Amino acid sequence: MKMIRFVGVFTACAILLGTFTSCASNLKYSGSALPEYAYDETAPSLYEEFADYFNVGAAINPSDLVEGTEQYNIITKQFNVFTMENDTKPDHVHPSEDTYNFTNTDKFVEYGEKNGKILRGHTLVWHSQCPDWFFYDDEGNEVTADVLVERLKEHITTIVSHYKGKIDTWDVVNEVLDDNFGLRLSNWLKIIGDYDGDGDKYDFIEIAFRTAHEADPDARLIINDYSLETSENKAITMYNMVKQMLEEGVPVDGVGLQMHIGYDTDIEQARNNIEILAKLREVNPDFVIEITELDMSCYSWGDESTEIELTKEFVQQFDDKYCELFNMLMDFAEQGIIDTVVFWGYNDGASWLNGFPVANRTNHPLLIDRDLKFKSAYWALMNLPSQRQTAD
Ligand code: XIL
Questions:
Q1: Measured in angstroms, how far is the CA atom of residue 352 from the centroid of ligand 1?
Q2: What is the distance in A from the centroid of ligand 1 to the CA of 85?
Q3: Quick one: which of 113, 135, 247, 334 has the most CB atoms within 10 Å?
Q4: What residue's CA is closest to ligand 1, atom 9?
């Protein structure tokens, strides 16, 4: 009897120990010795871990660029591509017809050059955060198509030339598609319309890309939009429009998927939609897809609540969703389709999702928390590349 109990206890211990050691040895990052804070000197690097797959980036703000701060150390270690969250938008850079304000983006470029980072310019043409002066004359009347085309060209030429050879990638146009089908009825579309008379109204987009390409022939030029991963209609609309533009010689190098997703987003739908967009490589084999503004809301779309309890089950689901997404993105990276994944921000406290689409909400969409501690999602992702290599 005693012997049986001993054997039983011994077996249970052995199984437990076996499970523990096999988990520990399978995972590159696990256990209690991992650094707690993202600014810890011993912290590993997200972009280095994913170097075989894609660049990993973040949207940042001028306050992140102060050398020696925790924020500066975190972004410099974790990411190798950057976008300014607001400071390169038309309302910041070109607030009135005769005023260009390059100060903050110049500092961003200085940071990037010093640290060998890839830089993205966001964005040249958008319906939002775009000053009204573009669309009206001094008397307050709407300008003609000719005037707006001239303003558009001058705007793009001045900005892209200023950063020629310094900003690697431009989101040339942002959110030009409607939520359902077709083009968004922005002032750009409404005023410029079918400028060349060929029957489509892609003209302001075509002019924007051609002008940007003339100003910096080496820059990568992206057409950026949201919900491309969830709405098949929108992905097909994008595909059709870009296909036509490519066939007409418009220099579009890639589509940017913003990827403001949720913990409940269907990743297989996203895979399907990316496959649709990847067919643009049949027209241009070098055509790429970038993930430009990734974050994962903890609230379902339509939910109006402002607080969510981070239960163990919820956090597990959140982490699993990030892993499922990154595994899918790595599949595309292996085919050369995706080479850049940029988060919209890098810590939960500074995320725009604390105020959108519901004011004063507390959201937790990123990999680093409000105290600048690594979240479990960070470690789950950090383990993926080595797990994948072991599985191969
Ligand atoms: C957001 C910024 O994060 C906010 O700080 C700002 O108040 C509004 O714009 N899609 C885009 C980004 O292309 O430019 C937006 O950024 C988020 C949605």
A1: 7
A2: 7
A3: 135
A4: 86
Pocket of ligand 1 (CB under 6 A): 85-86, 174, 258, 293, 352
pLDDT greater at residue 16 or residue 155: 155
Ligand 1 atom nearest residue 292's Cα: 13
Measured CA angle at 181 (ends 175, 184), to 5 deg: 35
The average pLDDT across 320-338 equals: 98
Model confidence over 81-117: pLDDT tens digits?
999 999 999 999 999 999 999 999 999 999 999 999 9
Q: What is the residue whose two structure tokens read 């076996």?
A: 18
SS3 142: strand
Which of 92, 352, 353, 354 best tests ligand 1's pocket when mutated (most atoms within 8 Å of CB)?
352
Pair 294, 353: CB distance under 8 Å: no
Single-letter amino acid, residue 364? H
Question: Terminal CA-to-CA distance of the chain, rounded, Å?
Answer: 47
- CA-CA distances (angstroms) from residue 233 to 199, 200, 204, 256, 290? 22, 19, 22, 16, 19
Q: What is the pLDDT of residue 7?
A: 45
Distance 86 CA to ligand 1 centre (A): 7
Which of 86, 87, 177, 366 has the most ligand 1 atoms within 8 A of CB, as the residue to mutate? Answer: 86
Distance CA 305, CA 319 (A): 21
> CA-based Rg of the chain, rounded to a whole angstrom?
23
Distances (CA, A) of 128 to 92, 160, 173, 289, 345: 12, 20, 11, 23, 19
Confidence of residue 25 (pLDDT cuts 50, 70, 90): low
Catalytic residues: 175, 225, 293
pLDDT(208) > 80: yes
Determine if the pTM surpasses 0.85.
yes
Cβ-contact 105, 88 below 8 angstroms: yes
**Cα–Cα–Cα angle for 256, 262, 263, rounded to 5 degrees:** 130
What beta strand segments (E) does the chain contain? 55-60, 81-84, 118-125, 169-174, 220-225, 254-257, 260-262, 288-297, 338-343
Tokens, residue 86: 């607001």
Asked if residue 6 has pLDDT above 60, the reply is: no
